[in-house]
Amino acid sequence: MRKYNSIITVILICFILPSIIHSQNFKFYPGVTYDAKIPTLKQVVGHDWGERITSYSEMERYIHTLAEATNRIRVVEYGETWEGRKLYYLIIASEENMNRLSEIKAGMQKLADPRKITPAEADNLINTLPAIVWLAYGVHGNEISSPDAGLLAAYHLVAAQNDSLADLARQNCVVIIDPLQNPDGRDRFVNYYRQTRGRWPDPDQQAAEHNEAWPGGRTNHYLFDMNRDWFVQTQRETRGRVKAFLKWYPQVFVDLHEMGSNSTYYFAPPADPKNPEINEAQVKWLRKFGRNNARWFDRLQFDYFTHEVFDSFYPGYGEEWPMLQGSIGMTYEQASTRGLVVKRNDETTLKYRDAVQHHFISSLSTIQMTAHHSKELLRYFYEYRKNAMEEGRRGKVKEYIIAPGSDPGRANKLVTILMNQGIEVKMAEASFSNPKVRDYYTGKIQAKRFPEGTFVVSTAQPTKHLINNLLARDLPMDKAFIKEQIRRYKKRLPDEIYDITGWSLPLLFDVECYMAETSSRGQFKVLTEPPVIQGKIHGDKARLAYLIPWGTQAAARALAQIFRQNIQVFCADKSFKLNSVNFPAGSLIIKVKNNPEDLHKRLEKIAQQTGVDIYTTNTGWVEEGIHLGSGEVKHLKKPRVAMA
Ligand SMILES: [Zn+2]
Asked: How far is the CA of 365 from the centre of ligand 1 (A)?
């Protein structure tokens, strides 16, 4: 027995004790004590910081408990995912700032639109407002460490008792923490991970727990990469986020990610190519923030790199879109453990806890910089928005003119997207002429007359840089960068652009667009709500059929609804003319027979919702083209789409 005891003692000394001692010594932030009244993650969900990968529901429980324990933190719900999980951001501020949040938000709205305030009012706002720093975690659900770091940062900022950084941050800033931008993706990863790991985590990169099955947790429910979606706004999560962003106009915005396990840590300044709408002031700030991170990382012996791999050319990134609104937008990337521990190619072992700590430290470093330079950042932000207007006024392209064209629905949709990101759009209340517009497609300069309902986007507004990014036909890329890529191509080396290189919205939406080189004069109104086209049924209740001309976005949307309601629908493969209306090939025919009794009512609703025009007919005898009973009229089967 004694012999066994001594063996057990040896085992304890060799294996278990060192790990206990090590974990006792490990401090996320050495030298700080925490207020015992503020609950830790362990007290609420059962595991310590970095000990497990916190699931969405655990995170949700923790942030609500945290907010109940202190006045320094407030939880705001800003949206919902496709799978029904709520999206939250946390506001962290001193009690004094917490009591004047609406005043702070109103102040930021004014600072963001220098047209509405005098320079003296701007000075006053800059002197009295805290700076807004926004940290966004986990947009890619399988990049796991950042949401845990976000929770830890929130805890630290409200519970640290002897940390001047936390005190100053609450005083000089409003810190906004979006702890989990993609809850659906994260839970997909966490569930997969918990299913595939054994009793102990396996550091082997080949282990199942490190290799997710398709589709993985990166994307949201509909498999969209939400770090490409900021200006396209196809996903409800993005729409909620953009709306929340525009309420606060943060001066600093960081999107925290993970990259391959064998890498180290990346932060600003970004790699080339630079987006041409980024200005020199921003370049300087990016360097300052990067420099401060480097100081922290050097002190704690964390490896890092800057200005390689991650460029910010594309405006749909969570780094670049805020940048074009005037924030200092940054991406941070931590080498991923894709589990709790991973053995890397250089024989070192990376623990989840370390990854969490790195993101936690870079978060605090960013907050520290913002707190120390809050007034300068507010001044920079105001001037960025003011200079943008001036540049637009002086620049060659004064306006982008979008005519309703053959499918006003497409122009409307484009304008809605622009307005949803804080871009001002005017609509012509009467026809007008502009003596010098450049055709978007041919490049020809001409004088042109535009009809009532034409949209005009002036570049002389605070969002000029974003406008040019989204509406210019192409954005010039640095010539030296292109030359280097050609050299690499010839050597069969991969190119160095991180991702997308072209995205013109007028081309994507196929709208009639012009670039005006003189400002338009006429009768315009600034739109306060996105425009809506209401379709209708032309004619009384049909005895024979309802007809929808094909070729518009509204017609396609109507067809989707018709399918959804199991209404029987046919399609004419050749054109025809009936009751003096032209129906091009592809037009839809909905016969009264074999369809529900309340067909008229249903179609009326579909017309209102989709903006489609529907025509009734009591005869199949056409004036030109094929008759409604022709062999060229085909029954449309409701498609069932499978992805494999
Ligand atoms: Zn990522």
From this structure: 20
